[in-house]
Amino acid sequence: MSEEKKLVEYMEKYTDEFLDILKEAVNLESPTEGNKEDLKRCRHYFERIFSEIGFKCNVVPSNDSRYGDHLLMELGEGDEQVLFVGHYDTVYEKGLFRNIWNQEGSKIWGPGVFDMKGGDVQVYMVTKALKDLDLLPENKKIVFFLSSDEEAGSPTSHMHYKELAKKSKASFVMEPTFGGYSNGLTIGRLCRGNYTFVAAGKPAHSGQEPEKADSGLKELAQQAIYLESLTDLEKGMTIACTCLNSGKAGWPTVPGGGELTIDARFSSAEQAKQYDSMFQNLKAFNPAVKITTKGGIEKPLFDEKDPKHNALYESSKKVGKMFDMEMKGHIGRAGTDGNFTAAVGCPTLDGMGMTGDFAHQPDKEYINTDDIAVRGAFVARMVLEVLRNE
Ligand SMILES: [Zn+2]
């Protein structure tokens, strides 16, 4: 029997085990900035199941009281390795889903079932299959970095898996598949910048002499409209205002100060550089209002045109065909850990995880159980593809 067939059969045989493990992981709710004990319980659970199949597990402290700690898990010895990247935090506060695990036919709803505890459990199942079927190449390593702060932008984890990525032949990011397509992969992601503009003008009495104010509120309102107007969808660039804060409701004062925050996405490094320098020196409409900029580029570009990522995408198409799948790469607008592994030069494929939909939407986020076996077998075969090619 071919390897591919063996892998699919294995995954089909163990789909119930996959779902039992996933159910327990989903039940251990783990909001990014949630209760420390909850986060620890979820982390311990992953630590336990991965140790059971032979991974050496090390806790990597986040050193930030808002987040749980991360896990670095390694299997095998040798200089060559494949890196899996995942996160066990979810965007949901505890109790946000009416039913924490709800199954109907081939759909299962639950907090983080799709984004991305399903992908984390896939790493477990993929490794277990390769071990049990005796397919793991000798003197090669599988490394899994499981972080606790991805939904917050990976502030305390990215430095760790970036170092791992530099030493890896490929990074597989187990985030949900693009658009939930069973042949979907994410082969690039936009660069993200986050900027806050702080205005300092001159306040004045809003009845007595409003004309004497250098209004921070007016300045930032003008900036908000101007900055959003720079959005150019054809060039793959968006600017969206996410917070505007100025003045006090009901208070008879035109405020001199205020803050405006924008979320900017760029599709090329040159674009990011050009706009970053403009934002760092944003010109005020009213020269009497001083604007200072906080923030900058938060997630580097995952550039789909880079030949390193492209070569990995090409091999994924070849492997997909072994499972009758025409793999299709998409560009993700949202950022993930893949932005970081790609930017340090490690060939990266993202969106390797579950099929389903509605990430970040309470009671709606679900996975599709029909694709568990084939997607698992595909990922397992990709591990072999990378580790076998010299
Ligand atoms: Zn995610």
From TrEMBL:
<dbReference type="InterPro" id="IPR001261">
    <property type="entry name" value="ArgE/DapE_CS"/>
</dbReference>
<feature type="domain" description="Peptidase M20 dimerisation">
    <location>
        <begin position="195"/>
        <end position="280"/>
    </location>
</feature>
<protein>
    <submittedName>
        <fullName>M20/M25/M40 family metallo-hydrolase</fullName>
    </submittedName>
</protein>
<keyword id="KW-0378">Hydrolase</keyword>
<keyword id="KW-0862">Zinc</keyword>
<dbReference type="InterPro" id="IPR011650">
    <property type="entry name" value="Peptidase_M20_dimer"/>
</dbReference>
<dbReference type="InterPro" id="IPR036264">
    <property type="entry name" value="Bact_exopeptidase_dim_dom"/>
</dbReference>
<dbReference type="InterPro" id="IPR002933">
    <property type="entry name" value="Peptidase_M20"/>
</dbReference>
<keyword id="KW-0479">Metal-binding</keyword>
<dbReference type="Pfam" id="PF01546">
    <property type="entry name" value="Peptidase_M20"/>
</dbReference>
<dbReference type="GO" id="GO:0046872">
    <property type="term" value="F:metal ion binding"/>
</dbReference>
<dbReference type="GO" id="GO:0016787">
    <property type="term" value="F:hydrolase activity"/>
</dbReference>
<dbReference type="Pfam" id="PF07687">
    <property type="entry name" value="M20_dimer"/>
</dbReference>
<dbReference type="InterPro" id="IPR050072">
    <property type="entry name" value="Peptidase_M20A"/>
</dbReference>
